[in-house]
Write the C-alpha cells for this entry.
Amino acid sequence: MVEPFGYTPENVKVKAGIPVQLHFQKSFSGGCLSYLIIEDFQIEKDLDKGDNLVEFTPEKPGIYTFHCGMNMYFGKIIVE
Ligand SMILES: [Cu+2]
C-alpha cells in the first residue's frame, strides 16, 4: 500500500533470480509519493491512484531501497 504517510509494509522479501511483480496500491491522488524510484533496477514510475505494477528480476541477494520522488519515504526490497 502507498498511503499519505508512506509505504505499508516498508519491507518486502523476494528471492534472487526469480522475476518479481510488485503491486503498489495507491490510496490517494497526487503527492510526491506519486513518483516511485528504485534505482538499482532502473525503475522510475508515475503511480496512479489504484493498482500499479512494477516488474524486475533481482539477480543478486542484497538490500535495495525504493523511495518517493523527493526521497522522503522509503522501503526496502530484501533479496535472499
Ligand atoms: Cu516524498
